[in-house]
């Protein structure tokens, strides 16, 4: 039950009946091509979204026009959930990151009904909001205070801590390009560092999983950087 409380382990399809969701999508589905904006900052629409297919990034831009990616979301994850707490305007951009991204549009009334009908789901939504705020705050702090290698190590460490894993295989949906966007560096830098860690026997990495073989050695890089 512990993993229920981590947002990336929660799949809406595992709680709600897929048949009902698919039926609902027929009348409430939205399709986006890669790069299309789903909503802008200051958007006042009081809706939530379920990712049915593809990938969505939540991001903002700094004063220099540089993109800062806050979250990447895939199938079964929801976003725009702060409207449940009375948020009147969006704080970020939501952009389709995958080709043919399909979203299910959910009204506040619909979400509250789903939360009443499923207690586990309702509890998760409130936990989700708090966890996301903390995660985004920490990510922004790391972007400001740490170099590229430190940011990647922190990212890998977070994947395992969030999934309650220790020296085990963790499934993930991040490409190297995704990782680069989330930690504010280039894909080439991520590829070079991941190859280095793999050669040193610290991790094993594929497109769908990461195996942490030597956590102490990985964390030693952080200690060296901080000295």
From TrEMBL:
GO terms for molecular function: DNA binding; DNA-binding transcription factor activity. Residues 146-216 form the HTH crp-type domain. Residues 32-110 form the Cyclic nucleotide-binding domain. Keywords: DNA-binding, Transcription, Transcription regulation. Pfam families: cNMP_binding, HTH_Crp_2. InterPro entries: cNMP-bd_dom (IPR000595), cNMP-bd_dom_sf (IPR018490), Env_Response_Regulators (IPR050397), HTH_CRP (IPR012318), RmlC-like_jellyroll (IPR014710), WH_DNA-bd_sf (IPR036390). One of its GO terms (cellular component) is cytosol. This is Crp/Fnr family transcriptional regulator.
């Amino acid at each position: 039950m512990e993993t229920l409380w981590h947002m990336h382990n929660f799949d809406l399809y595992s709680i709600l009946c897929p048949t009902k969701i698919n039926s609902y999508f027929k009348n409430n589905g939205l399709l986006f091509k890669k790069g299309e904006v789903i909503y802008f900052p200051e958007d006042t629409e009081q809706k939530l979204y379920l990712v049915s297919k593809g990938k969505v990034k939540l991001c903002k831009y700094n004063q220099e026009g540089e993109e800062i990616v806050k979250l990447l979301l895939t199938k079964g994850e929801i976003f725009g959930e702060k409207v449940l707490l009375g948020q009147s305007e969006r704080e970020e951009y939501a952009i389709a990151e995958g080709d043919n991204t399909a979203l299910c549009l959910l009204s506040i009334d619909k979400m509250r009904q789903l939360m009443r009908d499923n207690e586990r789901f309702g509890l998760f939504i409130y936990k989700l909001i708090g966890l996301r705020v903390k995660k985004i705050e920490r990510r922004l702090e790391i972007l400001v205070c740490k170099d590229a290698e430190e940011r990647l190590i922190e990212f890998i460490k977070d994947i395992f801590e969030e999934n309650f894993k220790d020296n085990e295989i963790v499934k993930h949906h991040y490409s190297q390009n995704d990782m680069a966007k989330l930690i504010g560096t280039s894909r080439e830098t991520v590829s070079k560092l991941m190859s280095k860690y793999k050669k040193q026997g610290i991790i094993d990495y594929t497109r769908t999983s990461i195996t942490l073989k030597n956590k102490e050695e990985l964390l030693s890089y952080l200690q060296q950087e901080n000295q």
